Inverse folding.
């Protein structure tokens, strides 16, 4: 009997389930029809959609290009999570509007000049044994040759260093396998000193180089005193990668303009791009950074330029630490594979990708087997003897990112607007997918680390053309998400980016990132130390020291304490504001009207603002972040009186 009931029950349940799934099926079909989606579209949608509250599997940190910022989004949903302000003021976060963040921005002053933008190109994640450890992010500013450090505990920029020699960098930031150094290579050669030399003096006085910024992981800071630069000829150094595994200790930087061409179209010379690409080959620079770091410790090996240690070319050569290998003309990306044996150089003006074998390179170096020297005395290795092989990929090969399976790499073809999946060991092409349009960098998940994850790939495209609703002549940028989990690559999603050109992106498993949701009470988030103005609830007060007013304030739902601040016209004002909330996401913002002041105060943070109260009047201040039902009531008055005036308000 029991059995019979059970059978009946399962039959009914089965029918119900079937009916339900038929109903769901037809709803599904209806939606597809209404929205004009193909089956393939629907599958792509299911692969990227994240239901509310569900988190992504990967973080992507993309450069914000001309915005001077870093963009953070999740994969596979492609939902934008944050803009980290780096080289550029950003009002929402108060970056560049409060005293502490201004100090960081002003670390980036170049020769005493305030710079308020940056051209961010290459984000790099900190590594331990070549694997991303989720602690720090570094990014370069090509325009002003700067490197910034972002602390991923708080997603805040914590340091900017200015290259003391270079006038522009492109090959940065790249890290060595244990983040001992952050590599920054010069792009457009110029005198390393800040002096004038005419173009005619190019070969003699203009130089390139690679700077090795010493990084202290404990402190989370670059140590400029322990950093140094390898001087290089004025070939335009381009992208760089540090060796790992068997090539750990070595670095690889490619270049264009082995011609040493200096342009001068106005004097009737061929234009720069033509003069720069006359020869069939350029140079891959190969250097032993561990040896260079040792050399830099001894004063007799370095010259000091602008207070910074420089290892001259001849010292590096004499110590067997610097070599050149020809590479097919005007290459672009250089990428070391996960175990460090193979180095893939992209053929920007050549249809071939070149795969160099580090073992073969080392063999020639050990045997001192050189084919000659360049005009700066640097030994040149044989191209053929250094190659594992070459493979014709297509037109405009720019960058490479490694897949999970051994030997698999994905490469971008700018001119052909494609991503190619191929095998760099067996030199075989597996698949191609079309990109919209003209892809620059690409990033397979953790694809530049020693532990690539495959699964998804981002194409960072240079053009969007017709992909989005038109918004005038300046189009958004387009990052495309591609499924690389199967044999065939499949385009899933387009993310419009209205911020600046995301040149390169670095991705990492979300499980490796552990950001805080609040600061220890009274923290200065730019130093991660207790702020001198830390103020707890009940400790609010105002003190006058001469003509300097110090205000120790707190913010908590739904009041600002103090609520009235009266100062004399001309007083200097320092205001410390502590958000004494412990609740997650209860950020308060603070502004005083007419004073170009805005700070964001996260739970536990103390922010400092400094200004002169130089205009008389009454200025409401308020919380700029809607934080509670009584948010509008969260305000106060800043009053500036002229001490010489008699205010008779009673009649
Ligand atoms: S890039 S144009 Cu292909 Cu890395 Cu800066």
């Amino acid at each position: 009997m029991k059995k019979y009931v059970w059978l009946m029950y399962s039959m009914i349940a089965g029918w119900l389930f079937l009916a339900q799934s038929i109903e769901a099926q037809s709803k599904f079909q209806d939606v597809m029809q209404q929205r004009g989606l193909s089956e393939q579209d629907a599958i792509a949608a299911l692969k990227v959609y994240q239901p509310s509250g569900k988190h992504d599997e990967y973080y992507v940190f993309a450069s914000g290009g001309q915005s001077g910022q870093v963009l953070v989004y999740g994969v596979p949903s492609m939902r934008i999570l944050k803009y980290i302000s780096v080289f550029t003021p950003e009002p929402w976060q108060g970056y560049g509007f409060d005293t502490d963040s201004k100090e960081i921005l002003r670390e980036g002053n170049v020769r005493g000049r305030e710079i308020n933008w940056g051209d961010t190109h290459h984000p790099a994640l900190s590594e331990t044994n070549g694997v991303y450890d989720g602690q720090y992010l570094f990014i370069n500013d090509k325009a002003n040759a700067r490197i910034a450090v972002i602390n991923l505990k708080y997603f805040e920029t914590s340091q900017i260093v200015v290259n003391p020699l270079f006038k522009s960098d492109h090959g940065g930031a790249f890290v060595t396998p244990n983040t001992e150094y952050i590599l920054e290579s010069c792009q457009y050669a110029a005198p390393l000193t800040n002096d004038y030399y005419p173009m005619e003096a190019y070969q003699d006085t203009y130089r390139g180089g690679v700077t090795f910024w010493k990084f202290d992981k404990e402190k989370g800071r670059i140590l400029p005193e322990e950093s140094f630069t390898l001087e290089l000829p004025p070939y335009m150094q381009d992208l760089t990668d540090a060796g790992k595994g068997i090539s750990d200790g070595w670095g690889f930087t490619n270049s264009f303009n082995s011609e040493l061409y200096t342009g001068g179209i106005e004097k009737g010379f061929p234009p720069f791009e033509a003069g720069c690409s006359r020869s069939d080959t350029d140079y891959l620079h190969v250097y032993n950074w561990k040896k260079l770091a040792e050399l830099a410790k001894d004063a007799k090996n370095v010259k000091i330029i602008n207070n910074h240690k420089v290892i001259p070319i001849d010292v590096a050569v004499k110590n067997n630490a610097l070599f050149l290998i020809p590479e097919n003309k005007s290459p672009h990306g250089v990428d070391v594979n996960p175990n460090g044996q193979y180095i893939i150089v992209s053929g920007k003006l050549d249809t071939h990708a070149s795969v160099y074998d580090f073992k073969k390179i080392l063999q020639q170096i050990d045997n001192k087997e050189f084919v000659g020297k360049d005009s700066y005395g640097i030994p040149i290795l044989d191209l053929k003897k250094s190659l594992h092989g070459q493979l014709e990929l297509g037109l405009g090969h720019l960058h490479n990112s490694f897949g999970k399976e051994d030997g698999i790499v994905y490469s971008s073809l700018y001119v052909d607007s494609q991503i190619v999946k191929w095998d760099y060991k067996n030199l075989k092409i597996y698949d191609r997918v079309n990109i919209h349009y003209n892809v620059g960098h690409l990033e397979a998940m953790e694809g530049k680390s020693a532990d690539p994850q495959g699964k998804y790939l981002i194409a960072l495209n240079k053009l969007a053309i017709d992909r989005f609703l038109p918004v005038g002549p300046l189009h958004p940028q387009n990052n495309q998400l591609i499924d690389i989990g199967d044999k065939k690559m499949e385009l899933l999603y387009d993310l419009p980016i209205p911020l600046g050109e995301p040149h390169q992106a670095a991705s990492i498993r979300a499980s490796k990132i552990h950001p805080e949701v609040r600061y220890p009470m009274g923290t200065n988030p730019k130093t991660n130390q207790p702020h001198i103005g830390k103020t707890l609830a009940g400790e609010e007060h105002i003190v006058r020291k001469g003509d300097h007013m110090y205000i120790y304030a707190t913010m908590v739902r739904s009041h600002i304490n103090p609520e009235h601040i009266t100062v004399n016209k001309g007083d200097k004002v320092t205001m410390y504001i502590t958000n004494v909330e412990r609740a997650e996401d209860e950020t308060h913002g603070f502004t005083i009207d007419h004073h170009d002041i805005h700070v964001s105060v996260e739970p536990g943070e103390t922010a400092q603002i400094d200004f002169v109260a130089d205009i008389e009047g009454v200025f409401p201040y308020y919380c700029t972040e809607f934080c509670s039902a009584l948010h509008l009531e969260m305000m106060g008055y800043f009053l500036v009186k002229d001490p010489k005036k008699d205010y008779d308000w009673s009649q």
